[in-house]
Each structure stands twice: as structure tokens, then as C-alpha cells.
Amino acid sequence: MDGPLLDALLQTPEGKTLEFKRDLSSPRNAIKTLVAFANSAGGRLIIGVDDARRLIGVADPLDEEERICNLIADSIVPRLIPNVELISQGNRTALAVEVFPSSNRPHHVKAQGPEQGVYVRLGSSNRQAGPDLIAELQRSARGVVFDEITMPELTLEDLDLAAAQKLFGDRRTLDEKSLATLKLVRREQNRLVPTQGAVLLFGKDREQYFPDAWVQCGRFRGTDKVHIFDQMEIHDPLPQAVEAIEFFLKKHAFKSARFGAMRREDVWSIPLTILREAIVNALVHSDYSQRGTPIRIAFFDDRVDVESPGLLLPGMTVEDMKSGVSRIRNPVIARVFRELGMIEQWGSGVRRIFDEAVAQDLPEPKVTEIATGVRLSVYLSQDRRSVQIKEPSPPAHPLGTADISRLESRLESRLESSLAAKVVLLLKEHESGKAQLARALGHKTVSGELHKQIRRLLEMGMIEMTLPDTPTSRMQRYRLTVKGHAAVAAPSKGTRD
Fold first, then answer.
1. What is the pTM of this model?
2. Which residue from 63, 113, 126, 149 has the highest number of Cβ atoms inside 10 Å of its Cβ?
């Protein structure tokens, strides 16, 4: 390593692939770092640099070089062979220990054993790997892909192939050949067995086998998670989850009109194209083998954070992601998303997010490795940032208070239910889901009576579903029919009910 490169390293902050140490007075920490480098994306450990990032060198370079080599040979299993160099600048000499991503991972600290001694690099620190992460390191070293692994205890009956075919439409007929081509099934012992990717995408009881394969959305006041304003759990199949997440984000954004030369264009206060790319990226690249953490979408006043479980794959860094380098964690899921037109080009998602942010004159997005996985922060421009959230107030009604009371009384008499009358009046203003209606009515939850009255209004033809083909969809909303609008038409002045 020459002087200019050393000078450049001294100006570089510690991170996933770089760490400085003053000396080897605490060799155990140095060994942990080298193990973490080998299990992650490689890296350099520079010995002989103080906390002020000044080169102070080591007392006896040749002895220290021999010592670190012996420590590595005696303390790390499987055997690790790094590149060790002496770096001299003036009368000071430091040690540079360079480790490359290892194909023999997971390496572990011999004294701690293979269950407790495995470490990975998380930012500028070393994280002890748990059983799930160790298993992923073992799979990646063997070239085994998680979502291509079969689930021999299941059959095709455990997949909702009718729903899958509806999604594919005319793009592809999901016969046995297509299912095998997409690696949704594999033949084992003369029968077709679903893969884990197939169950994640189209399993009838997906969360029985992958309990964290869902999405948690939250809208927070301000720029931290202290005050939550609204939240939603999305348990839809992964392809449909994209629209459900978008619906939640739109609910807390605002829309304005922009008029071009030929047409009107609706402009959202949040960058939907970027966020859709980030959402798809999270669904495709999440580590569904991990336990305890769903995908999380957090909407703040100044940004939207998209958090996906699972650290970066071995050999990958944040800088690689930003430059467009990509390794697909779940190729089965990615292939289906691509067939459905939800991915434009393999491996280009994150790069497109950064390019689109530049095109929209937005602050640069930020990718951060966190304890549970990877967070992608999409920032809003200053003029798009939300104003302080206010509690929703009842929409202004064109009628006076007395007229509203008479109208509600008339509807109650006709519908034989005060609650049904209130629902109809709310739907007169805008279509809503059950949870929205419950909040507008001042209820904490959707009561059994509200379910009942909505069912009655559907049977009477007063209201209709916005998604009649998927009646149980979490995106389901209700609106007045022509008959419903006629029922709430205000009587003319002087006309008696």
C-alpha cells in the first residue's frame, strides 16, 4: 500500500469495510472485526492509527506482523488467509490487514464456537449473528437460494393458483410447465412441490409458514417515531401489497393540479414513482427467513422510510447499491414481479431511485444498514413537505344543521337504523372503507353492528363496493349507488317529507 492510498484511507470514516486500531492491546476485538469482514463484504483493518486519525505506527512492525498472522491462524475457523502489509510513512510503520469476502463463510471466533462466535459487519460495528443469519450465510456460501427451496410437506392445493392466474391474466397461463419455469414448483418424488417463493407469493396460509411476511405502515407527526397518527397492517399477497401500501401513503398526502399545454395532470405531494420503486425493492429483497421483523413503511413530515428485514448480502455494500450493483436475494419473487410488469429491468431499482430523485430535484435518498436490515429514506422537497397534521374534521356539508337533522331523521325512518343513516350521509361526501367510517363515527373499532348495517345497505342496493371482485380486500371501499344518492337528495324548500 503506497502513501497516497494511506492518506486517502486516513481521510475516510470507519464503516462496513474499514476500521482503525491504535494497537493490538485488545486482540479479541481485532479478531472479531476480521471475522465480520470475511462474513460480509471484506475490508481493511489498519493497526497503528490513533483516535484522531493520525498515523502513530506500531513499535516493532515485523514482530506485530508475525503476531497478527499467528492470532488469525489460531483464533479464526475456518482458516482465514488475509493479505497483511507493512505501511511506512516517514519513520512510522503501520499494519494493514486486508480481508476479502470469503467463500468459506461463516467464519467464527474459535474460542466462542460456531453458534456464538459468528460476526457480521453492520456499519462501523460488528454484530453477533443469530441462528437465522448464520443459516443465511451458510446458504449463500453453498449457492442455495432461500425462495427456491421446496416445501415438501405442501402440495399445489396450498397455493391460490386461481388468484395467481387472475394476476397474470393474458401474460401467461399457469400450467405445470409455467409454474416450473417460474420456479414456483419443483418435481420431487414424482409430484409437484411448491417452493418457498411460491408460498410467499401465493400461499393460502402464507403467514402460517412465514409469520413476518406482512407490511406495517405508520404515519408519524414530525420527524421521529414519538407520535404516531395513523397505522395500518397489510397482509395482502406480496404483489397486491404494493397497491395497498400506495393507498396508505396517498391517504396522508395531498394532490394538486398542474395544467400543461394539452391536459391536466395530478401532482402528489410525495414522489410516488420513487416510493413505488422502493416498495417493490423491499418486497423483492427482504430476508423472509428472518423472524420478528416485518417490512416497515414510516411516513414522516420530511421523508418516507422503507425498512426491509435482512442485512445486505455478503459482498455487497451501500456504495455498491447506490452505483447500481445488485444481487437479487429472492429470484423467484423477483421473476414473478418482473412477469407482472412491476420490475422494469433486473437490478436497476435502487439506481433508478437515485436518478429519479435528481430528476425531481429532491434531496438524495439515503440507504442505511440498521440492526434489523436495510432502511431506504426517500426525502421530500421543502415545498412538498406536509404541514403539521391536524385531526380530521367532519367534512363541510352543503346543507344547514337543521336540514341535516331532518335528512338524517328521514333516512333513519326509511332504513330503520340510525347507524345506517349516518353511514349513508358519510358516503355521500366521499367513498370510505369500514375503518374510515368507524373513525368518522367516533368508534375505536369496526363494530359488529357496523358490519351488519353495511351488509344491509349492500343488499338494499343503497351502496356498492369499489372492488366487487375482491370483497375481502383491505383496500375495499364503499360508495353510494344511484339509488343511494336519490335517497339522500335533500327535499326542496317548502316540501314536506
1. 0.73
2. 126
